[in-house]
Amino acid sequence: MSKSTFDIEEARRRWEAETVAPALERREERRARFATVSGLPVERLYTPSGDDGKYAEQLGFPGEFPFTRGVQPTGYRGKLWTMRQYAGFSTAEESNQRYRYLLEQGSTGLSVAFDLPTQIGYDSDHPLAAGEVGRVGVAISTLADMQVLLNDIPLDKVSTSMTINATASILLAMYIVAAQEQGVDAGQISGTIQNDILKEYIARGTYRFPPRPSLRLTSDVFAYCSANVPRWNTISISGYHIREAGSTAAQEIAFTLADAVCYIEAACAAGLNVDDFAPRLSFFFAAHTDLLEEVAKFRAARRLYARIMRERFDVQNPRSAMLRFHVQTGGVTLTAQQPQNNVVRVALQALAAVLGGTQSLHTNSMDEALSLPSEDAVRVALRTQQIIAEESGVANTVDPLGGSYFMEELTDRLEAEAKVLLDKIEERGGVVDAIESGWMQAQIEQSAYEFGQAVESGERVIVGVNRYQSEGENPIALFQPSAEAATKQVQRLHQVRAGRDNTRVQKTLTALETAAASDDNLMPFIIEAVRAYAGIGEICGALQKVFGEYTPV
Amino acid sequence: MTISLETLVGQARGNDAVATRAAAKLMSVLENEPQRLPEFLRAAGAETPQPRLILGITGAPGAGKSTFSDALIGEYRRRAPAQKIGVIAVDPSSPFSGGAVLGDRVRMMRHATDPHVFVRSLASRGQLGGLTLGVKGVLRVMGLIGADVVLIETLGVGQSEVDVARVADIVMVLLSPGQGDSVQLLKAGLMEVGDIIVINKADRAGADELHRQVLGALKLQQGTAKRSVALVSSTEKSGFEELLNRIEDHGALHPQRRRENDIGDIREAILEAARRRIIVRLKTEPTLHAALERVARGGEDAESLVQLLLKDGDAPST
Amino acid sequence: MHASSPHRILIGKAGLDGHDRGAKYVAHILRDAGLEVIYTGIRRTPEELVAVALQEDVAAIGISLLSGAHFTVVSRVIELLKENDATDILVFLGGIVPESDIPRLREMGVACVFGPGISARVIVETLLDAIEKTPHSSL
Prior knowledge:
Chain A is of the alpha/beta class. Chain A has helices at about 10-25, 55-60, 75-80, 90-105, 115-120, 145-150, 170-180, 200-205, 210-230, 240-245, 250-270, 275, 290-310, 340-355, 375-390, 405-425, 430-435, 440-455, 485-500, 500-515, 525-530, 535-545; strands at about 80-85, 110-115, 160-165, 190-195, 230-235, 235-240, 280-285, 325-330, 360. Classes of the chains: A alpha/beta, B alpha/beta, C alpha/beta. Chains B and C meet through α2, β3 and β4 of B and α1, β2 and α2 of C. β3 (about 100) of chain B pairs parallel with β2 (about 35-40) of chain C, so a sheet runs across the interface.
């Protein structure tokens, strides 16, 4: 074997000069000096002493292609991950009160969860909405509800994250109009919409229209925001739900990245330049309890994505190849039996996310799978993150597990497996075909079945469930929205309908329908309908006339 | 409480929920005890209508059979709103447990509360072909309740395609672009079975290429059978008007199949009845069981045992 | 019904929630136990569930629920079964159902409620037991 020309020391010096120095310029590290609890110094990055070139190709340096070791050159030494714990509230009034409280306490980020009728596009008085109004989040049927939600909130100063997908365009339109009414221009508002419709078909089930028209809506949002709402993150491509539905780690990577490829292609086909929107793409993954596999998963995902962006989309902006993501610890791993065990599970999962270099993290409460978390449980979940950040030392150096024989082997394996799946999806004609034929769902179903069987047989142990059980009650308290709140919501809806200019509403809906049948960007038409106080159900009804409704496989 | 087949048949002729349930129970009887087909025919009487048109829908898994059926039903409902449609959807039974997940219905749920559409999901129950005598019984009940058209959706593998041909008036073979095995199916003699080759997902890339391949394969076919190709998109719901026109124009392409089928069904029912009785006798009559053992050891030839069984004399009822 | 023929069961999800992992898993384990499961997917109304149950001559309807509306859904399903003279069709529930609601659900006519973490063996045994105990007309 010839002597390698890769000199790792030289490479490292170059990295520090070209990548680390500018990062330090933008933001200093949190401390002048990092050390273990016993006082041993901890450096920014550890590498092998010599290398045959594999290091450069497979690992690289943090903040540089292929980003295996992370997207930030200084990792958490510069800035800790965002501890973003979100919660849902049932009425616009309650949510508004909570937001105002949080703002008083110094928070600048809000998060909104919506009820299922809003997510799927039914007004609160639709027959299918019965029992669902305000249950898993706030009910928003018209602009009036959004105005209550955002009342007295300075929309030019806060960043709002909305977990909304099929109807993302409509909720965003409402937010934009509400802001305008406050005198805040669309160019000043900032936030995120999840807006990932593909995973709905695959795993989550809150879809409305078929895939192709939905992709058109997604591209319309990208294009509109790129021009008019530049500070808005227009998508959070999600693997979390795919994992919750039972996929393996490799499937979680593959199906998420396949969705990303689909969105990017749709946007490019609509005429956008990839470097214009790719830096604003963000991702959302789960963290499960097999700690080392999860760390490897995040690293493999970063590397695979970077390679795809470069090879397939030929991105020029280095930021376009960076996989930035939020993690939520896996809800499905939590048990009803012996809920205190879940604190330990969440801690391990959070640790995995941090060792994997996540940008932001939500830790579940121990009882979250079964009921509205108690205040104590919520506090413990937050403390979990804080203890990891302050006491565990893992944030003191970048990618601490890098170089471990097992870690690199696992990372390579997961990347390879994910790549095989991505190729299979390509062979099937892409994500939409894979979804419409039911192939992706079947893969996940099979993984879920195999996992379930392994638990049944005891091959896979779930502590407290199939081993180390104990007697005792496992109380489940489902959150029931008050009938009063639902009634109030419906009343407001009826008042809005009675008080608005119905001719104007009809005109906007007709215009929307016409636009849907053409190539026009739909956002301006949705905004006009929203402004006229058209209901989310009416808007979706108009779109459905052209798009049809998705029937699942 | 015992209900007679006659009672069920009478109830099934009605138009209410009792009728639906009675029809469903009849289908279960004929599925579970297909040898009772002659009993059903006697109860139903000679004048019992049969479906005017039986359409077989076959093709590999993933070709989109159920979505296609759903679109076809929609087109028929639009065209003839007063007519009833029946659907028999077959899915494979697990060879290990004998159970099955029957999921074809999911794609047809928009018709679930339409009283003019009767869907029955069936498991193949170990018949490799996928179509059992039981299916034929279910088909008869569809006739009893006045179904004008019945769709039979098969498993989509191997032998079942041939079985469909024996039952349906028109067999549609569904192909879709991007399925590597479409070409395999063409080669495997599927062309002989299909009356109409339907290319589904006509709006997708590769549909034209597939169309060309199919036309090419048809040209090479021998025989005088009338075969044609149709292009549809089940998701776009396009091409169905033309397809239905073609189906209705074809009409029953193989009228002699129906006559052969009737006699064939009775023959199979009788054979099945005989088979079941013999199984019971061999198990429960000690002398017969002993004779069986002797034959198994080579100590006796089977002929006398067969004669004994065929005599059937005062055999216990099953 | 013929003694050796598989029981037929209908499984569907009611309400707007789309998490069907549990419902699909139960369908699979029932298949593994030799039953035939007609799986009807998500967003099913009580009317759809009962209509399908009648056509498919099922022994039981399994409703997967993660909704505040389990009482509404269940009472409507039971009402429809009564109207259609089909009260011999059992109703069982899966998903997240508060234990405190179970007595009232059973009073309404629900045969079994399967919460999270219950083993496949228990589900199959309980269900088969309930089915076999229900008087069916013989033909």
